UniProtKB/TrEMBL annotation:
Annotated signal peptide: none
GO BP terms, alphabetized: mRNA catabolic process
A Pfam family that the UniProt record links to this protein: 2OG-FeII_Oxy_2
A GO MF term: demethylase activity
Similarity remark: Belongs to the alkB family.
SUPFAM superfamilies in UniProt: Clavaminate synthase-like (SSF51197)
Protein name as it appears in the record: Fe2OG dioxygenase domain-containing protein
Gene3D superfamilies, A to Z: Alpha-ketoglutarate-dependent dioxygenase AlkB-like
Length: 306
């Protein structure tokens, strides 16, 4: 079925919806807010017209990042392909997402999630011990004792993507943050406490490009460089540092995903990130199943998704 096989049934509907979104973005804010349909669920907090104006004004995309680095005797822009989308999720939605993630963490600590879904290593030094929660697949970051190399574990048992994260995925697709050809089928949550970090790496090609990461709770910087220098636990030196505001979505593609390593230095405050990726078909776990109910979830259903 080609590259649209995952949730292929939503493509024609959402492509049409995407075209309408593009048209609406060309209108002024007042017209957009009057025409946009907001959730009518009585349990939701209603936003005033002025609040909605501010939400819309904050939603914009930054691209055309430039950072030149020498790779194999060639000067290349290692940030080519990066996009930063601001204000994709408003404050009420962020609150619901964070609350749900903490509920997942409690379930993980109580052994209520599948074997490889939840991981909370012991913190034995600065930068070590970040909590991770994986859905759709389990990615092994290091060589296992039996010699299995890093990658998607074909027999790794994890939970399916929860409804709330499917709603987030739908928002990313219908808002043109991710292309319809790259609907994510896996995600990983990182829960940072102060001094936690992510060391320099390039995301595995077990996942196709583009992929994206959403930031919550606190702002931090992400560092890029072809060869990032490690100067201490959680301390890195790179060529470019990009701020990730709360509620923003960083899309990684092109050189930014394939040539440049990236890392998160030790954070000063609590932070949560949710990274959405689509697996290479050949790398999917043996027990992976497509979710036929995805098309029934709408991006406005944050009220009772969890």
């Amino acid at each position: 079925m080609g590259s649209l096989e995952i949730y292929d049934h939503i493509s024609s509907v959402d492509l049409s919806k995407n075209q309408n979104i593009v048209k609406k973005r060309k209108m002024n804010t007042e017209e957009f807010l009057e025409e946009e349909e907001f959730d009518s669920n009585a349990n939701n907090t209603k936003l005033s017209i002025e609040d909605r104006k501010q939400v819309f004004k904050r939603f914009y995309m930054k691209k055309d990042y430039v950072c030149l680095d020498r790779i194999n005797r060639r000067i290349v822009n290692i940030l080519d392909g990066l996009q930063l989308h601001i204000g994709v999720f408003n404050s009420m939605e962020q609150k619901k997402i964070v609350q749900f993630i903490y509920e997942l963490q409690n379930r993980g600590r109580n052994n209520e999630l599948e074997e490889h879904t939840y991981s909370e290593p012991n913190k034995w030094m600065r930068g070590k011990g970040r909590v991770t929660i994986q859905f759709g697949c389990c990615y092994n970051y290091a060589v296992e004792k039996n010699g299995i190399p890093p990658g998607i574990l074909p027999n790794g048992i994890v939970d399916h993507i929860p409804n709330l994260f499917k709603i987030m995925i739908n928002r990313l697709i219908t808002s043109l943050v991710l292309p319809i050809s790259c609907v994510p089928d896996s995600c990983i949550i990182n829960i940072y406490e102060p001094d936690d970090c992510i060391p320099p790496h390039i995301d595995s090609h077990d996942f196709i490009r583009p992929f994206c990461t959403v930031s919550f709770l606190s702002k931090c910087n992400i560092i890029f460089r072809h060869k990032i220098q490690i100067v201490g636990p959680g301390e890195f030196i790179g060529s470019a540092s990009i701020p990730l505001p709360v509620g923003s979505v960083l899309v990684l593609n092109g050189n930014g995903a394939n040539l440049a390593k990236h890392c998160i230095p030790a954070v000063s405050y609590k932070r949560i990130s949710v990274t959405f990726r689509k697996m290479d078909k050949a790398k999917r776990p043996y027990n992976f199943k497509l979710d036929s109910k995805f098309q029934n979830i709408k991006s406005s259903d944050f009220s009772d998704a969890s």
